[in-house]
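In this supplementary section we document a worked example of the pipeline. Step one takes a protein sequence of length 356 as its only input; no multiple sequence alignment statistics are reported here. Step two produces a three-dimensional model, which step three serialises into structure tokens for compact storage. The input and output of this example are shown verbatim.
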Amino acid sequence: MLKRFLAAILLAFTVPSAASAATKSFTDVGPSFWAAEEIQELTQLGALKGYPEGRFYPNNLLTRAQSAKVLHELTNPQQAPQGFRTQFTDATPNHWAYGYIRDLTHSGVFRNAESFRPEENLSRAQMAKIIVESFDIITDDNDLSFFADTPSGEFHTYITTIAELGITTGRANSRFEPNGKVSRAQFAVFASRALEFDRKRDAGEIVYDKESEQYVDLTDASPNPPSPQEEISQQTIDLVNAEREARGIAPLTADPALSMMAQLKSEDMAENNYFEHESPTYGQVWDMAAMFDYPFTRIGENIAWNQQSAKEVVTDWMNSQGHRENILDPRYTHIGAGFAKNAEGETYWTHHFSRK
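The serialised model returned by step three reads:
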């Protein structure tokens, strides 16, 4: 079996579930349509409506004004006081959605600025923000969910928050596509998931843990099992720590943010058919850390190709001086691991090491 691994590098720096009812209501939303249940729910609540000819047009894009109407119907925000005026020059009192926009702007969902752009299609990033603000969801900076195309910026915290709550799952290849547009069916699903979160929070089934800075579902007795990739990656971390402990070196702390980076690097190698420390997508490991705002004073990377088990890859790394030095370096305090396969079944392994 052909296998390779590169020398390590390091750098130091000092409602009812009635899809059939939806079919009767809309000729273009059949019982097997992926968002039939959510469309039916929001229709029953009066937040979304169909068209006169009996169609829903689920793939039509949602405008910002339409999103204001949907969220207003679902969350019933406090009515803005009589003296409150918006600054919008393009969403004035004669606009059909002005009342919805005004109330939500007063409650902080929309920013009171010169332009509202009511007929502009809602972006996925904007969707994240207005759902978080409308449902008064506490945001945090744990970054337990990561998307390669939203490492920072105005909408980063909103996007990661709804991902952590399962309101969105993102797109393929660890992407969120923040500038992508939201269809009527997609918004129905996002809003339905937010409603379910809100119901469980009101019932005391979901609570916010201030210490861990995250929401906890008290009804979830059995957390989601790790994926096969996560299990294999964790095995490599355990084997590395066993090597360190056998030599009296303090074990490394598994770092979710570092593992996110390592997983993206493994996936990048598998998808783009290369095996190098310098990624065409992320650059060197320190470039990647900067891209994702990862703080460190020392950082390093081990990669390997086509080993068939966690034990095999760690053994090969331990038999290579540069890799072994990274694994046993007492200056490192944290570790992240990633594992991916390409279409041919070839394996790509990554370990990231850091000191914060």
